[in-house]
Amino acid sequence: MTDDAVPDLRASDADRERVAGILRDAVAEGRLDMAEFEERLDATYQARTYGELVPITRDLPGAGVAVPAVSLSKEPATGSGWPGRVVGGEGSSTWAVAVMSGFQRKGHWTMPRRFTCLAFWGGGEIDLREANFAEREVEINAIAIMGGVDVIVPPGVEVVVRGIGIMGGFDHREEGVPGEPGAPRVIVTGFAFWGGVGVQRKVTRAEKQRLKEERRREKLERRSNGEY
């Protein structure tokens, strides 16, 4: 196949996603404003050939930096990434206390094998969406006395709740959801008195943005196909 034929090759969804990733990096670095980002993203998901994709990132990431090219090779699909997040070690933090105050463990941190926390007339948040895990099975021992602790886990993680509540309670709604292969198992234990320990399952902001862009792409494809 000659180089002249390359622009006429049909682009795949993976090719469009690679270009969308370059645009997301560019807006995060301040190279594009939101109006430019949305305009180029729309053009990306409407593109049908490599010839339509290449100009979208021609001026990115900037002068003096090698411009990423749209790859014609098909890369193997990657897995969920869970094995890479079970890292071993002691964990970033093993305990937290909130007395008439609050605590947070969120972002990029390592959840230890056992994390113990106390909320007395206060509140705490343990966010595992972007966390690594010291072991395949970890335990959160939460004590909430006239206070509350919120545990946030990402989709794919198995949750087991074994806490005891007296005039308070533990949230069991996320129990029974099967975990993905290789995903950690999070056991929530402890004691709640006039307080509560909640468990929520949420995606990260980055995943929300990806899903939003995916819905936008589907809408544009339907529009281009004349569905509405």
Structural class: alpha/beta
User: Which term fits the overall shape?
Assistant: elongated
Termini separation = 37 Å
Tell me the strand percentage band.
25-35%
Q: What is the C-alpha radius of gyration, as a whole number of Å? A: 23 Å
Order of helices and strands: HHHHEEEEEEEEEEEEEH
Helix content: 25-40%
The biggest beta sheet is recorded as: 6 strands, parallel
State mean pLDDT (0 to 100 scale): 83
Unreliable parts: 1-6, 62-70, 72-79
Please, what is the oligomeric state? single chain
Strand elements, count: 13
The number of helical elements comes to 5
Structure description:
By secondary structure, this protein is an alpha/beta fold. It is built from five helices and 13 strands. It has helices spanning 13-28, 34-46, 50-53, 82-85, 205-224; strands at residues 95-99, 102-105, 110-111, 114-120, 123-127, 132-133, 137-145, 148-153, 158-161, 164-166, 169-170, 185-193, 196-201. The strands form three sheets. Strands 1, 4, 7, 9, 10 and 12 form a six-stranded parallel beta sheet that branches. A five-stranded parallel beta sheet has the order 2-5-8-13-11, with no helix packed on it. Strands 3-6 form a two-stranded parallel sheet. The chain is elongated, with a radius of gyration of 23 Å. The two termini are 37 Å apart.
